[in-house]
Write a structure and sequence with these properties.
InterPro entries: DEAD/DEAH_box_helicase_dom, Helicase_ATP-bd, Helicase_C-like, NA-bd_OB-fold, P-loop_NTPase, RecG/Mfd, RecG_dom3_C, RecG_wedge. Keywords: ATP-binding, DNA damage, DNA repair, DNA-binding, Helicase, Hydrolase, Nucleotide-binding. By secondary structure, this protein is an alpha/beta fold. Helix content is 39%, strand content 17%. The chain has a seven-stranded parallel beta sheet, sandwiched between helices. A six-stranded parallel beta sheet has the order 16-21-20-17-19-18, sandwiched between helices. α8 packs across α25, α8 packs across α26 and α10 packs parallel to α11. The longest helix has 31 residues.
Length: 738
Amino acid sequence: MGALDEPLTKLVGDRTAKVLADSLKLRTVGDLLHHYPRRYVERGQLTSLDDLEVEEHVTVLARIEKVTLIPFRGRKGDRLEVIVTDGRARLTLVFFNQGWRQKELRPGAQGLFAGKVGLFNRTRQLASPDYQLLDEDADSDAARQFAGRLIPVYPASAQMPSWKLSICIETALTKHLGDVREPLPAELRAAHDLIPLQEALELIHRPRNQAERERAQSRLRWDEAFVLQVALAQRRAADSALPAVPRKPVPGGLLDAFDARLPFSLTDGQRKVCGEVFEDLATEHPMHRLLQGEVGSGKTLVALRAMLAVVDAGGQAVLLAPTEVLAQQHHRSIVEMMGDLAEGGMLGGSEIGTRVVLLTGSMGTAVRRQAMLDMACGDAGITIGTHALIEDKVQFQDLGLVVVDEQHRFGVEQRDALRAKGGQPPHLLVMTATPIPRTVAMTVFGDLETSVLDQLPSGRSPISTHVVPSLEKPNFLARTWERVREEVGKGHQAYVVCPRIGDEPEEPKKKRRAAAEDLEDLGTPDAGAGSDDKRPPLSVVETAEMLTRGPLAGLRVEILHGRLAPEAKDEVMRRFAAGQVDVLVATTVIEVGVNVPNSTVMVIMDADRFGVSQLHQLRGRVGRGSAAGLCLLVSEMPAASAARARLDAVAGTLDGFELSRIDLEQRREGDVLGQAQSGVKSSLKVLSVLEDEEVIATARTEATRLVAADPELAAHPELRTALASLVDAERAEYLEKG
């Protein structure tokens, strides 16, 4: 074990090491050295307090403006209220029964203040924050620590504020900087003018000026990009070395018969992408292709044509969907598109047809057994299903193509378990309706070739999107329900989406009471004002009840969510698709794949609780027919908040690729490839997948060249060590997720 792999207990002691591990997942000396500052501040350069978000854990540099000790009325104790400012905005610090702090928290002093931003009486505050005053004697620890250089502000926690982290990192630098080894090849460092890693680590933590910080970040940015791209290049090389059965389209087969029946022409984009897919299918190595495209761009049609081509070539194809609702929807729409071509071997079926079967975990035993028999004997050329397809007892006669829909919902183990069911590795087509910027595709899906569908089929109608500020303008919410009634009156249908189901296990009385009041709050301008607790998200069950009793009384309103029995979910979707339901109140279970052209309006409640890309996916469920679509984003968030800015961005454009950039720009960099998407800590600390396109592209080229010359990295032991640190058991899956 190298010095950088040593546990932190030896460096900082058991108690501090436990706090670092529990709150920040920092366990070794190497973890600590690579825990970089989030930003830097200079003495006298105060933090902008206007930008602080409620619920965010922050460290700010501010000046104390006013200090007031307020005794409690009618009981013992007091509250120390400290107002700090950046010269424009103010933030309140509150300490309970700590009046003695009045002696050191004096007006005019500057300090670092850390805590979680709360809201009390509509005023942002930090309750009992940690702090480090900087305007102390020149001989003080704080003054010496930050003298003559930038002050690093680290990603921190309530138990471990930034300046305490800084002390731990200083200790690690002093004792172990010399143990850091160089992972990048010398010729690569020289070609790109990169400073040594030891120097970069020192300058990232101890910069005297912005120029030193930039030099350090430039080097560390390269480390992150290059190690990631080496991992992906190794996977690409391993995949391309595998054998596969070529699956060339056969003239006069299923594909030609299907194309002849299409009531419309393929778009230029669909033709181009189909050509790329067919070219890959004809090779003796497995296809690994990512198909991304806008909502409604026709990805399913491209995937179906690929599956038909494989069936023509004697193989079988499978489409893996993340939810039963989506699997059922895919099965229904594919069978409808194929007609008797989907009834091969059945009475009335086409002579050249095949069988299209559905397999989900909740199917009855007899139906499930028959589906598995059709797959095993080869009668089922196309199988559509959920995770149930991955079970060991599911077998195929000759699996030639795996199509994975919405890849970001599956891990590498699930994907590979399905691919392993082929005698030889099957071809792989990954689909996602979430537009992905090029650099993200290179970073996350770097082992896949990419095809993009950005052209909508003709006949699609425009979708107009508007934000409904329900607290500021309750009449707008009333008008929302009027618009729903108007659309239903024209013979159309509507979705209402909520972030929560509402049949969760029994909650404490306080929470139950808050949930019961949610619906009353909907139309009340003062709802939640002055409340310390954010109310629970609106739910499907409660919202449906409110609508049927109130503004949508008399309409046919039904609910759909993930905890309904599978047959109930399928029945609701069938009835909705058949026009027997006017308004479907649902969770995000309808986010992808659901296709009901008669639906023209979608109302998204508590829209600020959804991500930008998710909102874009949801609104893609309307405007799928000849009538124009309408999407209404209902939110209680104030106009100046970042949440409202996200909603305004969604309302401002239908360009999913533009929205994906906005989404990533507004979220923290750590969330781009980190916990929010993969469930594990992000390895990207300096690299920006949006801003560093040139570095990522160049690193990809260099990594591909190095792996081609030395696949096992035998001549690069330090790079191999860095790679092992990144691609552990968890991160191997992380690399595969979008």
